[in-house]
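FAQ: What does the model actually see?

It sees only this:
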Amino acid sequence: MARDDIVERTLGELARQVGGELQGDSDLRISGVAGIEEAQSNEISFVVGPKYVGKAHESKAGALIVPPKLRDLNKSLIITDNPYLAFAKILSIFAPKPRPPLGVSSKAHIGAEVKLGDNVCIHPNVYLGDSAVLGNRVTLHGGVYVGSEVCIGNDSIIYPNVTILDRCIIGDRVIIHSGTVVGSDGFGFAQDGTSYFKIPQVGIVHIDDDVEIGANCTIDRATMGKTWIQRGAKIDNLVQIAHNVVLGEDSIIIAQVGISGSTKVGKNVILAGQVGVTGHLEIGDNVRVGAQSGIAKSIPPGQTVSGSPAISHRTWLKNCQILSRLPELRKKILSLEKRLAAIEQVTDS
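And it is asked to produce this:
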């Protein structure tokens, strides 16, 4: 991943930038990052566990990022307790940085009384509704729809074909990937006996700073008040977040999760892929939920749960072990029932 337009860094400089311990040639010139098998002598790679030691020995990489237990590798090393984080930081140094042209395309629709910050980039076929406000260095890619009175903060990037509907608020350094819809109506209907009467959804979606939202997500506006995605939350592709949900700071929501209305998710929560959460629940801080789990009741802080309905993760693992043995156990039970019936027959006679 070396780039012609990025100055090389020495291994010593990289070690200082990630707070790692240097072992080896501090003056080694590094010009890119690559996988352990593809890396060349001017590139750095990383190793996180013993199973990759063989590949590390064979690698042509000039240097490796490793945990302390792998410090005996015969290569130049950056040693750190969190190699993956160090790898991410170094990769960000060498990663290609897009430089879109500044300015507003003549093919974009700019509504009345729109306020644009400095150095914005608005691509062709963008729609900006009346009284929308963009901060400094905002980028709107082609096909983005921004409704009336929407506010988007500084340094945010909105990728192609994203829809942000009226009055929603987007913070600073927010990234929203293609196809996502922010501010669609919440799913609210009142029964009148034989049919359903639509409840007007008059709230908004409020997305705090440093949030990233994947492709083809839907975040519904609140019935009243706001659906709130708090600072630093990360949302994968294909996630549905319903009206009036509160998603806590630095929480991670993996692909295909669905969160029903008015549920409150705490800080540093992880919902793994395809988790379903019913409405009006509270999920405490630091909760971990295993993939495909069904959450039907509130979860106290710090719990790790799995299954549907969700139970303690350890109990769920034990249940899974038993589940695989059910055919065998059934045969044993049927055999025991026959033996018991024979004993009872002898006893009765």
